[in-house]
Design brief:
single chain; 194 residues; alpha+beta; four-stranded antiparallel β-sheet; 5 helices; 32% helix
């Protein structure tokens, strides 16, 4: 039985309030007013949560400095699955066949190919920790179909990019808006589904 997967991009305000972009894009929640300005939006904090079968949250973190870092990871996974390249993505020399992102505390979220149809997701400490904390939520070898991952990541990014477009429209000539439009073009060149 294949797993259903949901990925949610998370907005984090400067005071720590967290809201999923799903709610922001549906206008049931709002970001802080200052975060709707291009320069501020481009630097907003955030993260993702990954849910299996609608109830089992296997990953949830905003420990990525800003939302662009984790969204670039998601974008990179989509390009990687479609065998496309972009100068927006770096390849980690230690994991050149995988797509990885490091948290602010240097833990590793890694997506690998298991076989022709499946992917494996792991979240592990980069270095062996002397002691684990009860809040550590590491896992390895969570398997998903490529189609399920692609569609879930694309949907999560579509919610984020809907807000990005709204921010750009407020001040399209701002230098951050120009960068955000380039970023949007990286995403919009992808097929909407597997």
């Amino acid at each position: 039985m294949s797993k259903e997967i949901q990925i949610m991009c998370i907005y984090r305000s400067d005071v720590g309030r967290e809201v999923e972009y799903y709610y922001l894009s549906n206008k049931t929640e709002l970001m802080d007013e200052a975060d709707y300005l291009p320069a501020k939006f481009w630097q907003t904090m955030g993260g993702i949560s990954i849910i299996i079968n609608k109830y089992n949250t296997i990953f949830s973190s905003t420990d990525f400095y800003n939302i662009v870092k984790i969204n670039t990871f998601l974008l990179h996974t989509l390009y990687w699955l479609k065998e496309k390249e972009s100068s927006w993505f770096d390849v980690d020399d230690d994991y050149n066949n995988d797509v990885v992102v490091y948290t602010g505390t240097n833990d590793l979220l890694k997506l690998s190919e298991k076989n022709q149809d499946e992917l494996v997701l792991s979240f592990t400490p980069v270095k062996d920790k002397q002691a684990t904390d009860r809040t550590d939520r590491y896992f390895s070898n969570e398997t998903f179909t490529k189609e399920a991952w692609y569609n879930a990541a694309h949907l999560a990014l579509s919610e984020y990019f809907s807000i990005l477009q709204e921010v750009v429209k407020r001040d399209p000539s701002h230098p951050s808006s120009k960068i955000m439009l380039e970023y949007y073009n990286v995403w919009s060149s992808l097929p909407k589904s597997w």
